[in-house]
Amino acid sequence: VLSLALLCYFPSATGGDSGPVSTWTQRCVLFLSQANLPRGWIIGGKEARSHSKPYMAFLNISTKHGHKRCGGFLIRKDFVLTAAHCDDKKIMVYLGAHDVTKREWSQQRLAVGQKIPHPKYNNKTQENDLMLLKLKRKAKLSTAVQLVPLPETGKEVMPRDVCNVAGWGNTRARGVSLPSTLREVDLKVLEADRCLRYPHFVPNSMLCVGDPKEVEKSSFQGDSGGPLVCEGTAQGIVSFGRKDGSPPRVFTRVSAYIPWIKKTMRKLQD
């Protein structure tokens, strides 16, 4: 059984939360999943154009075993949205990053002041798998750091829509190959019944993503928490899937949680 803690480790010798991860510069792509379902990583993708996705956040997460990585995305100057299963001891957020092994001119490395997982998150079924990160200081918007819009009421992503997923997660279904630079892949949204093989799939709050016919294209380990972006809007959050990385995989449906997200951010308004 795969432990949640195995989300894509890089050892503590890499220099702590804000240190480089140069030991792990192998090529890689998107996401991991739950105790018996691997989190997200990108398989079959390509390197993203530098700073073409300025909303992306790299999460360098301290654990009792060392470090792990997740993705996230900037939705307000002081808030990043990610997956609840990425929670651990301490999180450092890198904004404006392309190569996370370097101190790029564009990078802002910000500490997290408060972690707010959804109150009904279930770490066994992965229901309500989302978490807000309140940054200790606001991000400075630039060409490399921007917000991504959340869905408006009534504007749902539809089956057959093709959306984009990006991250710094594992690119191999077997073994570990972590990239230093941001990777991306285009994936198709499927009808909910295509994910009924997952016993805890909830259509109202989850999305089924990735065409099984395109087995070489998927998200997998290391980029859990990253966004599914459809026509410029963050519609999903990388959540879980099968251990072998094969599609389809499951994303948290962002539109189902807009009231909670807005209420929580208002409550913590500076």
From TrEMBL:
Pfam families: Trypsin (PF00089). Keywords: Disulfide bond, Hydrolase, Protease, Serine protease, Signal, Zymogen. This is Peptidase S1 domain-containing protein. It comes from the Eukaryota. Residues 1-15 form the signal peptide. Gene3D superfamilies: Trypsin-like serine proteases. One of its GO terms (cellular component) is cytoplasm.
